[in-house]
Write a sequence for this structure.
């Protein structure tokens, strides 16, 4: 027994050292097998097992079935994990062959030479290239070259409202002007109904679903384009400060629930589902979730709207932020032999055939869909499509601004909404961050 | 007068203790019964009991979350993390506690600073290093950083404990001709039992629950651990809370069971250490 | 340290004991730290393009109000943890050593359970407790007639830090409890019996015997407490996401956000280096104070 001790320790220590050293040499054997087609390294966030299912997961599975000769080395991460992972991989210059990017990543990635221009791939198939809704690839263009191909991009701002509660407050239909909108909110406050249920813990909700639309109403889209290309527009311009003021005023007149900063966008729907709040504001993705999880009577009472027109403001008053979301991108270092298959894959995920399925899923596709009427849409999707017929897309701030500026904006907006900053001060903080970055 | 005072004091202390214990166990109970609710029940009232238990949540968690294979990976990584941390940590701590040698303080201080490192700040350098070493995405990948980052705590605990163990027994054994390894293992190691049982629980949990390294260093779905599996239930725009709670329960329950099995040993170990120390 | 030549192992054995840890630690911890220090001198947004900018990041850090605000938040957590966690654990351990408390085994076992849960689970759970409308805390206050105490616990920037500190303190009481119980059990019973003969009662026993004999254990506990709480992150992130605004952002989250959300990897590394420097500083200060108090 006692003799055993020594030999046991020795063995364990030595074997552990062996483990340590052995791993270093392991990698060399991982060569590519030249005969078969090389696997396409593909990282995305569409798990085919997740509920509710996604159109992209379906399309990827379909492609695999139709093209058994194309093999993949897939890594699937949930959305938040995906963001962390893609940033680690890009920092280490180890991106996979095919992956997803947001418009805000594009310029940083291009700057570092990580992305392959996709114009050649697009040009190969004119019907695919021309099938995209006008402007839907614009967010991914840097210096005239396209670096991302988008599959779907609905509006990030939709007001989901309870028709009964609004009628109780004296509005037979949704307010047409901002003044009426504020009156509605005040009425609802009197009736002890939470006017707008907001869950901004993730900090992107107010940026993406509120200020992107509201800001554009006040400033017009030229202001934003001038800002992101650094051609003179400033956060401190009076129109943008007014937009911030309008948002802060909503807080001041009691439009939101008190716990707006400690619940997330999923939780913000809860009090709407309970009939305790009259509206919530989120992107088109919530329509699907609403139909799946809200009580039936609430779904039936739900109407869709966008912010009403603001009297005397400069921008187009039927605008809604939308368009650019996640898009497929290709590694600049990709093995050219794989490009044909990659092109086929991206096309099958984004072309007008795919668009049909995307629409059936209640999402807004980036490619045009022929004869929409033949597709069976859920009531919510129908309302959504109708709503979009009368509006026009403007940029989503947090997909177009640099990641640093977006992060600053997310936090600053929240600081303003808790009254720590005045709109003027918030604008100054943003401008300072902006100048530090473009310096 | 003092007697009633004492009695009230006693009752007060007992009530206080029960309040503390209740607060510690209630979250678990809440998690368990909530995991049996439907998503709609949950979103309408987070406190209510399930009207009809939904075991489907667990089935879904296993299928969607692939909890089965993640479970095995977590168990593998956690087990070896514990073994190697205790082995390496104990011997190093023994040397540091017992002997003077050049750079002794430098080495000790180096290990201690390991406790202060915010690992989120090191994700990218570690990824780059693992890539260069060819260590990414293997079954043993995660054991390296887990052992290394746990070593600080292990060495700290062991070193402090070994210092309190009197030297005489070891010296007597050595004079009797026992080899140093045997002396250390047969005399010092058993005396460290109280620390070891605490350490087993701590390091096991650390590895079992660790998230950032597991996310960054592992690619293939076959090698993922439970914490990564947990986040599969959280989409960008949707979250299925009851499924997530079921998955959390799957993650937490084995640990609780292991802990409860171990709890007695921890206490026994402590008293054993106390008698001799 | 007692250096005894009698038990000193052979040179090779000595090295086999020592080196595996040192080598592993050097590769897994030191090398990445050195890399991070290197990155902290660059303007780097990821990828191959890196611009050396010398000490610019550090100059920015010195005047970065978000960082120093986060540091204050960490200090607050450390302060309450040192007194709350260690204090409560100490009191409970004395109760558990006394004859007064019933069901000791149950309490000991149960109080450790939160330590077993991951911080993410803890954060999720306490988020539910603090919830404005449906949360347990406000429901409880209403039931006992304390409506005026009802608050948006995680939304008021003035109290949010206290709200998020409570779960952190609560979670690790069990950990320090175990440490203290182990140490107390090693105090020889005869010491107490002698003291009782001299007429020492409960409180006096604690003040004049338990406390001094545990001073080194307490010092260790304080150090662990500081080290752990300077990198606190997960549970707060789950509860508030660092908000409202930046009211509950701690240093580790700021570093993470800067690196992974704002994409400033160079500056993110600078913040990480800053966290390490401040943590070491704080521990040295605490040990100096502790050292002076010792007899």
């Amino acid at each position: 027994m006692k003799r055993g001790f020594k030999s046991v320790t020795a063995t364990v220590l030595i074997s552990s050292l062996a483990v340590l050293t052995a791993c270093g040499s392991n990698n060399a054997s991982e060569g590519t097998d030249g005969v078969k087609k090389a696997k396409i390294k593909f990282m995305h966030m569409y798990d085919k097992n997740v509920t509710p299912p996604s159109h992209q997961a379906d399309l990827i599975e379909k492609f695999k079935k139709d093209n058994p000769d194309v093999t993949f080395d897939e890594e699937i991460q949930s959305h938040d994990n995906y963001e962390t992972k893609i940033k680690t991989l890009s920092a280490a210059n180890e991106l996979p062959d095919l992956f997803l990017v947001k418009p805000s990543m594009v310029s940083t990635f291009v700057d570092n030479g990580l992305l392959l221009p996709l114009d050649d791939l697009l040009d190969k198939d004119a019907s695919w290239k021309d099938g995209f809704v006008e402007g839907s690839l614009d967010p991914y263009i840097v210096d005239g070259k396209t670096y991302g191909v988008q599959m779907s991009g609905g509006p990030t701002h939709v007001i989901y409202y309870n028709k009964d509660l609004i009628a109780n407050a004296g509005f037979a239909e949704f307010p047409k002007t901002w003044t009426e909108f504020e009156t509605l909110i005040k009425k609802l406050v009197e009736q002890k109904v939470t006017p707008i249920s907001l869950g901004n813990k993730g900090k992107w909700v107010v940026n993406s679903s509120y200020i992107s639309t509201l800001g554009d109403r006040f400033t017009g889209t030229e202001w934003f384009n001038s800002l992101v290309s650094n051609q003179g527009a400033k956060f401190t311009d009076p129109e943008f400060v007014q937009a911030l003021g309008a948002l802060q005023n909503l807080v001041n007149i009691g439009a939101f629930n008190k716990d707006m900063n400690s619940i997330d966008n999923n939780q913000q729907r809860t009090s709407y589902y309970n009939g305790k709040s009259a509206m919530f504001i989120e992107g088109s993705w919530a329509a699907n979730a609403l139909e799946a999880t809200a009580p039936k009577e609430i779904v039936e009472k739900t109407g869709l709207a966008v912010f009403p027109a603001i009297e005397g403001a400069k921008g187009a008053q039927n605008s809604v932020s939308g368009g650019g979301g996640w898009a497929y991108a290709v590694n600049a270092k990709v093995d050219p032999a794989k490009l044909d298959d990659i092109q086929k894959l991206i096309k099958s995920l984004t072309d007008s055939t795919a668009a049909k399925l995307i629409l059936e899923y209640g999402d807004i596709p980036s490619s045009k869909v022929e004869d929409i009427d033949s597709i069976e849409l859920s009531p919510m999707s129908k309302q959504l499509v109708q709503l979009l017929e009368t509006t026009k897309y403007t940029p989503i701030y947090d997909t177009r601004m640099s990641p640093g500026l977006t992060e600053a904006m997310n936090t600053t907006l929240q600081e303003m909404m808790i009254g720590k900053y005045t709109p003027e001060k918030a604008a100054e903080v943003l401008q300072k961050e902006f100048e530090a970055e473009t310096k | 007068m003092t007697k009633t005072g004492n009695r009230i004091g006693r009752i007060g202390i007992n009530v206080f203790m029960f309040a503390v214990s209740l607060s510690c166990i209630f979250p678990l109970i809440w998690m368990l019964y909530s995991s049996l609710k439907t998503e709609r029940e949950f979103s309408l009232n987070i406190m209510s009991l399930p009207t009809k238990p939904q075991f489907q949540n667990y089935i879904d968690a296993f299928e969607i979350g692939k909890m089965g294979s993640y479970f095995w990976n977590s168990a593998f990584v956690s087990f070896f993390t514990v073994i190697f941390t205790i082995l390496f940590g104990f011997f190093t701590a023994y040397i540091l506690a017992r002997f003077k040698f050049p750079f002794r303080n430098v080495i000790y201080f180096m290990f201690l600073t390991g406790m202060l490192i915010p690992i989120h700040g090191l994700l990218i350098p570690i990824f780059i290093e693992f890539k260069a070493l060819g260590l990414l995405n293997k079954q043993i990948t995660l054991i390296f950083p887990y052992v290394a980052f746990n070593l600080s705590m292990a060495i700290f605990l062991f070193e402090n404990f070994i210092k309190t163990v009197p030297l005489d027994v070891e010296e007597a054994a050595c004079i009797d001709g026992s080899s140093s390894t045997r002396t250390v293992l047969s005399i010092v190691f058993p005396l460290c039992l109280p620390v070891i049982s605490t350490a087993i629980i701590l390091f096991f949990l650390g590895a079992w629950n660790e998230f950032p390294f597991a996310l960054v260093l592992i690619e293939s779905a076959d090698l993922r651990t439970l914490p990564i599996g947990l986040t599969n239930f959280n989409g960008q725009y949707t979250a299925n809370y009851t499924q997530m709670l079921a998955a959390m329960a799957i993650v937490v329950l084995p640990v609780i069971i292991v802990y409860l099995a171990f709890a007695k040993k921890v206490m026994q170990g402590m008293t054993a250490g106390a008698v001799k120390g | 340290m007692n250096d005894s030549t009698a038990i000193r192992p052979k040179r090779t054995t000595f090295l086999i004991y020592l080196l595996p840890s040192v080598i592993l630690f050097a590769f897994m911890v030191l090398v990445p730290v050195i890399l991070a220090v290197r990155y902290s001198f660059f303007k780097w947004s990821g990828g191959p393009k890196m611009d050396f900018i010398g000490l610019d990041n550090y100059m920015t850090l010195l005047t970065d109000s978000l960082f120093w605000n986060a540091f204050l938040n960490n200090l607050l957590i450390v302060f309450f943890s040192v007194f709350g966690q260690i204090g409560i654990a100490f009191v409970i351990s004395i109760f558990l050593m006394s004859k007064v408390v019933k069901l000791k085994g149950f309490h000991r076992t149960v109080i450790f359970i939160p330590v077993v849960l991951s911080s993410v689970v803890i954060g999720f759970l306490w988020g539910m407790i603090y919830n404005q409308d449906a949360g347990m805390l406000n429901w409880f206050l209403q039931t006992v007639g304390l409506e005026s105490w009802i608050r948006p616990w995680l939304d008021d920037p003035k109290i949010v830090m206290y709200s998020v500190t409570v779960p952190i303190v609560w979670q690790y009481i069990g950990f320090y409890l175990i440490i203290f119980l182990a140490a107390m059990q090693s105090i020889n019973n005869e010491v107490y019996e002698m003291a009782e003969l001299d007429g020492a009662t409960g409180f006096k026993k604690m003040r004049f015997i338990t406390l001094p004999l545990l001073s080194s254990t307490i010092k260790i506990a304080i150090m662990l407490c500081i080290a752990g709480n300077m990198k606190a992150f997960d549970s707060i992130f789950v509860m508030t996401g660092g908000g409202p605004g930046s009211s509950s952002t701690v240093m580790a989250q700021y570093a993470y956000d800067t690196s992974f959300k704002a994409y400033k990897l160079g500056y993110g590394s600078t913040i990480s280096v800053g966290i390490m420097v401040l943590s070491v500083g704080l521990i040295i200060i605490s040990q100096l104070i502790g050292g002076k108090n010792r007899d």
